[in-house]
Amino acid sequence: MSSKRNLLSGYRFDFWSVVTVISMVFFGMFLVIPVGRMFIYAFQSESASGFTLDNFVKFFSREYYRNALFNSIKVVVCATVLVILIGVPLAYITTTFQIRFKRLIDILVVISMLSPPFIGAYSWILMFGRSGTFTVFLKKYLGLKVPSVYGFTGILLVFILKLFPYIYMYTKGALKKVDASLGEAAESLGYYGVRKILTVSLPLVAPTILAGGTIVFLRAFADYGTPRLIGEGYSTLPVIIYTEWISENGSNAFFASAVALIMMGVAALVFSLQKYISNRKNYTMSMLNPPKPKKLHGAANILAHGYVYLITLLASLPQIYIIVISFRNTKGIMWAEGYGIGNYLTVFDKARSSITNTFKFGIIAILIVVVLGTLFAYLTVRKKNIFSSILDVLIMFPYVIPGTIFGLILLMSYNAGPIVLSGTMAIIIVSYVIRRMPYTVRSSSAILRQISPSIEEASQSLGYSSMPTFFHVTMPLMTPGIVSGAILSWITIINELSSTLMLYTSRTATMSVAIFQEINRGGYGTAAALSTILTVTMVVSLLLFFKLTGSEDIDL
To answer: Could you read off the pLDDT of 538-554 as tens digits, one per residue?
Structure first.
């Protein structure tokens, strides 16, 4: 009871009380109620009344579903381990040594990270699928047979090349904060090269690597598009959920909810484990002597540049290839001779609404995210009480809810009753806001912690109330953090596929959905043109981020 009194002490009704009420109502309606309904559905069945475990018995008693769970965990764990083995050395090399064209490398890596993974799957199929460009070329002219890119191998390949940038960016940011004097002290004790890295550098950034690895695990675990396109029978849990919901024999919301609950349980377990380990292995560094990149010579210089350029090329290759073939002529769903802008003319003729919807939904969602995210960030940092603590948990909870599941629970909650949102753009926008708000809140909170509360106290001592003080004093100081989070939220919003697939109708399809549909129909030229438009939008957004923040790095 005493802890609750402390949290509630000093609480009085003002502008921030209204914001608190709005936050509780917003997350209550669009997060707590949908998740609660999913829990209830998971323990219900069409064949039994009342509380039942039938759905879970069905899942764990059938080999097909058990294999899907095993497949999901297997491919995601392998991807996470390999991503760490690739991303950490890459971050160490680019941070510790002088690498030419480092800025360009960072931009290419970030673009490859922020584009949807299913586009990477689509590109690898076009390049190395059974009738892929490179598959045919190597077989025809060199007599070489390319290993299959389908199934486990293909999914793993796409996950590695799409998700290693998370480890790279996280680790690179952490390494920049390691005081160079620590390395010098280690060298004075006889620790050089790999020994110094393993005993000094890696332990210091281990919590950050673990956090990045958790994000990789959750992103891969929740991905529907990649296993759906390139899996070819390698079934995973997101595919199972979508199939159960969109079934030819009728939707089974109860069983889909049970599978979703199992997925959320795995995700929550991994997230909690990461938090526990990170809290026990956390370090604070002074940054009084930031590290300065050293110049390499000879073979070491060649190997370092070769490794960095090779990984960057592999990560960028799918995007480059998609852009090139977007100008290749098509005849129906077949490729034709020559190049032109025919695919783009087709896109603007037949898929214009999906482009319009992407920007319309995205702009509305990002405006809501910026306004609410900034206010909510202030609540969680400056207004410490029981409600702000609950809000902090609710804001970050979407990290452990895969997009397919979130779309499903929104549909179940607002498909009937007093509030019907299914089939409208509102339900898609709500999904975007809930799922992408953590970026803006996290970024705004980080910069707010660097602003001294005494500035606000001085404003209030001059007679300004809390609301004018926030909008005229605090918020302008938070602008860099708000912009940083908003750009990240925007880029991930326009790329969103998983939840949109559950929520869209023919009138509310977005570019990601249109690309996915065109790939399934065999309309590769149109899909490539739409993908290129999406990529160009991301590049412009990224350049805008660098321009507005004056930063050379994108902070995750």
So the answer is: 888 877 777 776 665 55
Contact 413, 28 (CB under 8 A): no
Burial class of residue 473 in the structure, from the number of CB atoms within 10 Å of its CB (0-12 exposed, 13-18 middle, 19+ buried): middle
Residue matched to tokens 């007679």: 463
Q: How confident is the model at residue 9 (pLDDT cuts 50, 70, 90)?
A: very low
In the block, tokens 């609301």 appear at: 467
Average pLDDT along the chain:
83
DSSP letters of 494-542? HH--HHHHHH--TTS--HHHHHHHHHHHT-HHHHHHHHHHHHHHHHHHH
End-to-end Cα separation, the chain, in angstroms: 37
CA dihedral 273, 276, 280, 284 (to 10 degrees): 100
> Which conformational region is residue 232 in: left (phi greater than 0), alpha (psi within -120 to 50 degrees), or beta?
left
Residue for token pair 């590695």 = 160
Full DSSP string of 448-472: HTTS-HHHHHHHHHTT--HHHHIII
Tell me the per-residue pLDDT of 123-145, one tens digit each, with 9 for 90 and over.
888 888 888 888 888 888 888 88
Task: Quote the DSSP letter at residue 232.
Answer: T
The answer for residues whose C-beta is within 8 angstroms of residue 332's C-beta and 6 or more apart is none
Nearest of 159, 183, 145 to residue 81 by alpha carbon: 159
Q: How far is CA 153 from CA 83, 123, 130, 165, 322, in A?
A: 14, 15, 14, 20, 21
- What does the pLDDT read at residue 152? 93
Residue with token string 């783009």: 344
Q: How many residues does the chain have?
A: 556
pLDDT at 364: 95
Diameter over CA atoms, the chain? 81
Q: 3-state DSSP call for residue 97? A: strand
